[in-house]
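chain below, 197 aa
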Amino acid sequence: MLVLRSSLTRALASRTLAPQVCSPFATGPRQYDGTLYEFRTYYLKPSKMNEFLENFKKNVHLRTAHSELVGYWSAEFGGRMNKVFHIWKYDNFAHRTEVRKALAKDKEWQEQFLIPNLALIDKQESEITYLVPWCKLEKPSKEVHVLWWNESADSRAAGRHKSHEDPRVVAAVRESVNYLVSQQNMLLIPTSFSPLK
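prediction:
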């Protein structure tokens, strides 16, 4: 189980608002840094969620033949329900473009997965992200995404409760909350075919 936290933060600097960096994934003008990650979210028709996931599981090999799947999850709660969230790794923008072109020409991918499943998707979102330099999974402008792994929803709740009793955490939250513009959390459950659990 993962929790995705997406936050928009700001800091005062010479009377102007400037971004504040604090997470492993970030968006921003880093196109020359090489490796990038695409966060994709598909909002599915409620009655079609299981059908979509089964179709993807059956055909995931067709898609991973073109680029690396970092992880694939369904959202348990947090915002709109009946959505899947997945992360794809690319060497650079040219690589992503090559992959998109190859997928458009891949008849097996088109016929076995894409065409049958288009009607199951209500909406799609895509965002390019980069890893901050100190993160092992390999820098941000405004939006910040943090993936936290937890054993279960109960262990997450216990950890949050314990941290709220720590005066250092309470002080840090009180100090940083003034810079928070928006925040969204999603509890993500890994699919059986997700490389990252």
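The two ends are 7 Å apart (CA to CA). The longest helix spans residues 49-64.
thats it, cya
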